Amino acid sequence: MKDYRFELKYTADNQVDIDYYIEQARVERANYIANLFRKAFFKKSEKGNKARVSFLQQSPAH
Asked: What dihedral do alpha carbons 40, 46, 50, 54 form, nearest 10°?
């Protein structure tokens, strides 16, 4: 389980550094999206360590 305790970061003016937390959220979201993309499009081969692209089946256009 993730530990949600954190230390507050302050700017030189002794205010909470909001930009730091916004950037951290962007990094976490980008990692989450990248992992979803990898799970959806890349499959690990059982025979080796190579990953192969797996294309999602698309229905023909009507």
From this structure: -30
